Structure formats: C-alpha cells, structure tokens
Amino acid sequence: MPSRPPSTFVVSITPFTADGGLDEDGLRVHLRRMRDAGVGVYLAGSGSGEGYTLDDRETSRVLEIGVEELRGHVPVRAMGVEPRTPGQMVALARRAEAAGVDALQLYSVDAGHGNRPSAQELQRYVEEVLAATSLPVVLSTHESVGYLLPAELVAAAVGDANVIGVNCSTDDMTYLTRVVEAVDGRADVHVGGPMHAVTCLALGGQGFLSSDANLVPHLCAAVIERWQAADLDGLHAAFEALLRLYTATRELGGLTATKAALELLGRPAGPPRPPRRPADEATRVQIRRRIADAVVAANGIARR
Fold it and tell me: Which residues sit opposite 117 in a β-bridge?
C-alpha cells in the first residue's frame, strides 16, 4: 500500500451576525485561524457549517471567501449538505467550481422518508455526479443517511482519476478496515470526528476531519504531527485532551456549545440559526468551565 501523508481537516462553522445574517468578516477571521494552524477546511457543511440554513447565494459566498483566505495555504473544499437527488449535488458542484475551491465532497444521497438506495442506484448516482464535474472529489460514506457505501463501490469509484479521497464516518471499525483496504493507497481516507483518528492512521488511513478544530485547530494538527514524529507521549497528551474536549462539547450541545465557547473566548461565531437556539445561561456556565477553559489548556498542550 503506497504511503500518503497524514492530515486533518475542520468542518468549519459559519459565523452569523446577531440578526442572523452571514458574518463575512467573522468568517475571514475564523478561517485565518485554521490556515495558521495548517488545518484543511471544509465549508458550508450540513453539521458544523449549518449548511441546511444557507441559501444558494450564501453558500456561494462562503465558498468564495474560503478560497480568498485559504487557497494556496491549506486545502479548501466544498462540503455542502446531503442531497435528495443527483441534481442537487451537481448544483453544489457548479457553485464550487465557480468559487474555485480545491475539491468537492460528494455526499451520499439521502433518498428521504427512510428509504435506502440500492447498490445499483448508488453506483449510478456516484457516476452521474463524477461525470458532471471537473473538480477533484472526496467521497463521503456517512452513517447519518442510514447506510454506508458498499466497500466495492468505494473501490471502483477510487479508480476514477478525479477521486482523491474518502471521508468515512462510522463507529464500525470493520467497515473502516474494509474501506482502507478497498482504497489501497490510491486516495486519502479520513474518519469523521476525532474518536477513531488514531485507528484510521494505524490502519493506513490519513487522519480525521472534525468540528473540534473550530475550537482547537493547533491541537488537532498536533495529533497528526506527533503521529508523524512517532512521539507516543506527545500523541497521548494531545489525543487525550482532544477527546475530553470532544466529550464535553457533545454533552453540552454540539454546535451550539461550540459557538458559545468561541464567543466566550472572544472568537467570531454568532448565534446558531433556527431551529437551533443559543445556549441558555446555565449551560453557558458549564461551557465556560468544561470547554472554554479546556481550550486554553489544550492550546498549551498543542504548543509543547
């Protein structure tokens, strides 16, 4: 299996103003923090990026700003949201091409109402989108849509010259193993979230993408750097700090907690858009104690 360099990516938040508008200046400041830490960036994602709340103009603007701030420094990629149809995915590809991003994530199709596409339908969907864009493509296989791409489909798709990576988001490590084996060094494999980052690296994958890097980009980069340096003690310290922060963030509200912590730290974030609500005061007290203060300590670990 050919060796490929490890890396980490953030699924970037989208900062909003107090009245709910897109905070372009805040987004630029946020992305510069990611750039300075050497972390690659996915934009307008459906989770951390609140992509489902963005209209087409806002999505295009987020991508354009990302390119202006990041291109040539760190990878800048369009993530978007889970599409219902191939046409929706192709429409994102057109906006991504116009913005000039480095690559496009190809989300698994969400057929809606609990429906799962057949293997043949998935193959046609992937082939249709790949044929419709000239951008480099990263396949997403994510349990959030209720299924995972067959490893055989992943293996075949990676044979396309445009496919440069696979983002694999699942707790099923037997499946992750099959995906890494199917890719066989022909593209990068990253796991979604930090939980299985070291497992992915140990299996021959390239790392992880996360929401956590919005808070601690240097700590996420340190996990990769210390893996590369075979610094076991340093890796242990960085990875433990990252997982404890991940746990606190999930327990206190996920994206809502992330945005509140960034605000408490004086970073641009703004409120989440409905139906999400900002953290209440009692939760903010916990966020300050368990997340904001931990971010300060984590930054110290990252710089050791």
Answer: none
